[in-house]
Design brief:
homotetramer; alpha/beta; Alpha-Beta Plaits; Rossmann fold; 2 domains; 8-stranded mixed sheet; 27% strand
Chain lengths: 307, 307, 307, 307
């Protein structure tokens, strides 16, 4: 690594801020190796979280936030050096993410607008570091709402009964969605904000750990359709919502966040739906923000959330 | 009803306090009929809750607390009059419960003591209006704990694999338990405070809406065995507990109360169990107190809780 | 009361739905008198809540929801009859509110938009039964946001140091606000959705129990200015929000609703403000909805909420 | 450091487990220095938490859990080496605590037993790593309860109006308490489990950050006496409890943990006290456990809790 890149820690600010995410088989010395490397390269660690699933032979997960003045000029060099000096030795999977690079988030939605609007609003207010290149819906209804935020809206009709997946295992509407997205450049995150169609395994496989769904129940209770109705029928005393990464198995992916709200015999199905909106919005927005800030690491079918 | 029983509302106190619980097909005029009756008989209503499952042809549920000076001397008369003047007309199921009559509660437990001890403690402190004639356990371990509260302890061995139900559909240990309980007089409530054996349908049928179980999950998630382990494996972000009436179907009875507590990737199975104890105790104690105060009405497989 | 007005309970629906709110000195027979009256006039009570602050000489509070087919044609008669047959006898303060009459709600706001937008959104979605004739702000910033909901926006400049109250005890800006509101007709509710100016006692007195403020702390902690900063300095582990009726004493009015959210040493002042927005919105929206549905009764400096 | 002490990471277990707590002025390289040191000495870090109050010139706080086989034989050496090789350079305040050394906790109590019993119970069950050499009370009432746990009970009468502090600024009862405690050896933690007397500044000064009090309100609301009564009078919708370190200023010390529970107009003062007991117990037990596990670091008048 050239001297040019060994900078003194400078003014703290978004510009020089980055996050290191890393995971590997646990063994002694990882933290010493990583922090020694960062120190040698003039980096000032400002936050650090780590987790070991089992000190004896488990996996190790690390997230560090740091400042490095002039980071933008030497990111590539830093990455090469990290791979060479640390990661290869520990067989790490890792990435280094400059904080100022906002993630590109596409939102899929059907007719219910509450989760969508909440995300648009929070991004608009600067609560969430994201760019939203587009919203895609299987209904035309929400076009005006979306466009009023200056965000592009695409309507892709998706028949109730999907046509058979085609050549690449994708349905026709999915191929159309990919086309639209590809035209706009790479996507970091897809959020299903009450999107009421099931995506094909082939489509999901293209976005591993990059699709977040909000399910309107406390999973694993009430997987599948109509959870509020089933909650009302079972007579539960709390209703919940769950944000999770989408995998090939419906409502079975790694859970990122959950929360609940108290209900009683007084609440009818319609009341549950209204109360549920609030909890859905909060759960989804927390999960999305954590993802955007690289706080969620996936360990098999579970998540580690450094919130 | 004789004049002797039409008392003036007297000094407010437990002695003259009672609760009226009633349910019938909903139709206009019920509240007018009930409250008119009570007024005519000099009763002062101090709390009143009602619920209608559907104003058009649903069921109506009523709970009223009232004071009547000299109640103890005219309870029978009041009951007869209510049946005659009100209940028969509306085809009500109803009961009238003097508040000073404490309910008799038997606790069944296995080896884990936290839920049991919490109940013994709260009853001892006067937080819950109950008499505890005995604790029954399929293990001898907790005898000293129970007896230190001045409560009788009975150990009834229950083999892991139940012997086949016998003549009346009861297992041998269940027959033994009934014998022990019968010797002590009628039971108003049986609490399964982490009792780890399954009761036979025949046994349960003898105590309709009078057995409360604490299940260590947020039902309907993780019905059945080992919910904490399964919660850990699924990677949920909240764990819960559910208190419900026991019916013939395992973990399917009417839910009385539920609550949850936040957990994270840091919590191992053992941590979940420790955290869970606190939420189990709170959920169970709330459900039991509500039952003891006649606040829980059952509507099919749901409860109405006038808390 | 004329026969024309004694209707048979008809199809359940908003049209025939009303709420009776009543309070008086507690004494026996009130419920019998009210429900007998309603029954005689063909009214079907669908919900009923009551509260007695003290069975011995306290106050009695009642809220009943009922259906009466043809209500719109006989409301006046029903009111006259109720006053004559019941209310006068018990010296009740009472009102009878048809559910289909939406309340007229004016929102005052300064620069922070989250609480305002949440209310506009919920009203727009039909979650809250209100008409919003206008939003008034001491800053021009939010005009476009408000007008995009089809709601009129008025900017009334309010100097930091209020000019001395004038003739009627009102400041000049307050006189201007009254003028604007008077031009639009009567106001049922004024909501201070993070309105950062203090209203004069004379202004407040014109809207008794009709101004709701959201204070961004868990009152009585952190009354007055800058609660988030003071919460950060005190190192609290939860931050809260409080919705209360405005009285002449700053942040001392009757509390309608409160809630909290967990924070930690990791949260800086800016984080508290962002987290606080969510809790402010929820607390305010619950309080406003309860007021709009006539669920909040005031007892001195406390509220009774029949939620 | 001698070779004897450079051990290979061994079987994970309490025996070789320790915690490093450290704080110093923040500057680059601290983590690298600490983790490099630990690695060189064969230590395997299993958990690590850090916090920086401000990356530019704030304070840095570190807590690390680690395993070192044979730790018990080389703790002194490891400490000397850490001071020499790391701590002196960064002017750290630090301590190294073997996990198997249980802290010695004295409980002070008056007449209310719920917080005391909860602690005795949790310690007895192994939920909290502590030894309890004694309970001291200004009332004799709870002797039997305490002794049934096999814990010594001392009654020290404390007059309502304290006699004037004496020579060393201590009251006579405080001198007596110190005498009793000194006879039993050093104390790591004193818990005021609803102890209703105020300790003198001179007494408190002897146990800096080693006295935890449970206050039965959500501080800073309702500091001082009778918080439940004042909460009832103010009409709050949530009541709370706060565990904090005791300092010379009443109810002003660093807050460790807080929580709340929902109440309504239905709850009378007596109900608040009963509900409050549950939240007091939970808040206090969490705070005490965190202290016992060295998870609480004090930063001025705030705490950093690595929970």
């Amino acid at each position: 690594m050239s001297v040019a890149c060994i900078a003194k820690p400078g003014i703290v600010g978004q510009a020089g801020t980055a996050r290191l995410l890393a995971t590997c088989q646990d063994r002694p010395g990882i933290v010493a190796a990583v922090s020694g490397f960062l120190y040698r390269h003039g980096v000032n660690i400002t936050h650090s979280d780590q987790h070991s699933t089992d000190p004896e032979g488990g996996r190790f997960f690390l997230r560090q936030e740091f400042y490095l003045s002039g980071l933008e000029n030497c990111l590539d060099e830093l990455e090469r050096a990290f791979e060479h000096e640390v990661a290869s030795e520990y067989k790490m999977q890792w990435r280094l993410v400059p904080a100022k690079r906002k993630k590109r988030m596409v939102i899929l939605v059907s007719r219910l607008d509450h989760a969508l609007m909440d995300l648009l609003w929070r991004v608009g207010r600067g609560e969430m570091p994201a760019d939203i290149p587009m919203v895609i819906s299987n209904h035309p209804d929400l076009r005006a709402h979306v466009e009023s935020f200056g965000v592009a809206f695409h309507h892709v009709h998706v028949p109730e009964a999907h046509d058979a997946p085609r050549g690449r295992g994708l349905t026709l509407p999915e191929e159309r969605m990919l086309e639209i997205m590809d035209a706009e450049g790479p996507i970091d995150l897809m959020v299903l904000a009450r999107y009421m169609r099931i995506l094909s395994p082939a489509f999901v496989k293209r976005f591993p750990q990059r699709i977040i769904n909000i399910h309107h129940s406390f999973l694993p209770a009430f997987e599948g359709a109509d959870p509020y109705r089933r909650a009302a029928e079972r007579g539960v005393k709390l209703i919940g919502a769950t944000a999770h990464y989408v995998t090939g198995k419906l409502d079975k992916g790694p859970i990122i966040e959950q929360d609940v709200i108290r209900v009683s015999h007084r609440h009818r199905l319609e009341d549950l739906k209204i109360l549920g909106r609030d909890i859905e919005r909060q759960v989804l927005s927390r999960a999305v923000r954590w993802h955007l800030e690289d706080r969620v690491l996936v360990d098999g079918n579970k998540t580690i959330v450094f919130a």
